Amino acid sequence: MSQTPRSNARAERTAAGTKRRRIRRIPRWAAWCTGVGVVLMLLSGAALGGSEALLNAATSKVTQRNLLGSAGGERHHQSITGAKNILLVGLDARPGQNPNDLVRSDSIILMHIPADHSKAYLVSLPRDTLVEIPAYDNGVRPYRGGQNKINAAFAFGSQGLTGAAAESHGFELLALTVKHITGITPDAGAIIDFTGFKQVVQTLGRVCMYVDETTTSIHVGKDANGRPAGPYKINPDGTVNHRIPGVTPNIYTKGNHCFSPAEALDFVRQRDLLANRDYDYGRQRHQQQFLKAVMKQVVSDGLNSPTKLPSLLSAVGKAMTVDDGGIKLEDWAFAMRGIKPDSITTIKTNNGTFNSRSVPGVGSAEILSPTSLQLLKSVREDDVQAFVAAHPTWVTADSAAPTTG
Q1: In terms of DSSP bridges, do strands 356-359 and 130-133 run parallel, antiparallel, or are they unpaired?
Q2: Which residue of 5, 28, 89, 166 is 20 to 30 Å from 111, comparing CA positions?
Q3: Quick check: is 335 in a domain?
Q4: Is tRNA-binding there in the keyword field (predicted)?
Q5: How far apart are CA 380 and CA 283, in angstroms?
Q6: Any domain includes 304
Q7: In which domain, by residue range, is 100 found?
Q8: CB 207 within 8 A of CB 290
Q9: Rounded to an integer, what distance in angstroms lies between the CA atom of residue 386 and that of residue 27?
Q10: How many other C-beta atoms can be found within 10 angstroms of the C-beta atom of residue 370?
């Protein structure tokens, strides 16, 4: 994003002043950039600033791929007008590992943008939600379809594949499953690599947020000599087996915290030892809060530094893979320029409480309540604002903490 070299000092000063003004005008797009699948809107400030160089530089950092496949709409002649729904998927392990190991989606979020493009809503689908996964052939290992937890859809779509092919096929089957249970055709999609967000936080230096319940790490701790050590023995399915003697786990107490990159990544992964015993509901809420806190901090800390901004864009580009749904990123950017971090509302399915049932061959699974189905219907019909007004307790409290200190 450097300016074209000038032949005299006056021109250089003018270019520097222009650069500073452009950076001050970026908050909206950079906030989107470091958020979730809303990276689709990361360019809005650049579009408004009229800087082709800035626009091209930002676009080049975004990894783009057709993820939706047959689950998406017609990709030709798509329009940015009207309500939009973006499917965001976080992974607990990126494809590229042993092809015999199934990769399950760690978090599944529907981002709804109303027709007026003034705000956004994030709706998380619990990873243990009981669904009917449609039959699917990825060209290597066909899946016959059947009843299972929703996070298994990505696994069945990607099985036998690695790398980009695993991502694309896993995402497609998950999108087909979401479409089947909600009636919503995603307009775009994105894969979020929470490990990649460690570098985003590294660029910012830290991320400050409010921890709404004391959280004990099952992954990170210290031994008696103060050396890093795993505090718990973990089962192959990711659950806790037993505590490791002599190792003290990291504990993130309720209250304001400014996390280091490693702490931030560890915190958003936790689901087993949460004070409120809300497990996946707690983790999905914390991931939503973390992403929103990062967006806010980019606006407050990351945009006024010409040295931070390029690294920030690069880190976000590596942390996400985006399917623009056939709409140019520049068009997404301009249309979503009015959405700010404070305009994002996160909503809890099942009001954040368990509605479990034991299912033969599946185990304990979450059943979406009738009110959760109403929520998804409001997303489909672009009436989420009315749902939120009628169900205010379903909205997740903001988590951003002061960045002083």
Answers
A1: unpaired
A2: 166
A3: yes
A4: no
A5: 25
A6: yes
A7: 9-208+274-394
A8: yes
A9: 29
A10: 7
Bridge partners of 108, per DSSP, are: 89, 125
Residue with tokens 């032949």: 7
φ/ψ of 194, rounded to 5, equals -65, -25
> 148: exposed, middle or buried (C-beta count within 10 Å: 0-12, 13-18, 19+)?
buried
Tokens at residue 167, please? 């991502």
Quick: pLDDT tens for 8-21. Answer: 444 334 333 433 33
Distance CA 195, CA 318 (A): 10
What is the dihedral sign for C-alpha 336, 337, 338, 343? positive
Q: Which residue from 251, 248, 288 is spatially nearest to 268, judged by alpha carbons?
A: 288
Neighbours of 383 (CB within 10 A): 15
Burial class from Cβ neighbours inside 10 Å (0-12, 13-18, 19+) for residue 392 reads exposed
Examine residue 245 and state whether it is found in any structural domain, yes or no.
no
In this structure, are residues 23 and 1 in contact, taking their beta carbons and an 8 Å threshold? no
Report the number of distinct structural domains present in the chain: 1
pLDDT in tens, 280-321: 888 888 887 887 788 777 666 655 566 666 777 777 777 788
Is this prediction's pTM over 0.85?
A: no
Query: The CATH number of the domain where 125 resides is what?
Result: 3.40.630.190
Contact partners, residue 338, CB within 8 Å, separation at least 6: 28, 117, 118
Tell me the per-residue pLDDT of 208-259, one tens digit each, with 9 for 90 and over: 999 999 999 999 999 999 999 999 998 876 778 899 999 999 999 999 999 9
Positive/negative CA dihedral, 134, 136, 142, 148: negative
Q: What angle do CA 401, 126, 148 make, to 5 degrees?
A: 160
Q: Which long-range contacts (CB under 8 A, 24 or more apart) does 267-271 make?
A: 267/211, 267/215, 267/217, 268/194, 268/197, 269/92, 269/194, 269/219, 270/215, 270/216, 270/217, 270/218, 270/219
Would residue 229 count as lying in a domain?
Answer: no
Neighbours of 195 (CB within 10 A): 15
Q: Which two tokens stand for residue 29?
A: 């797009």
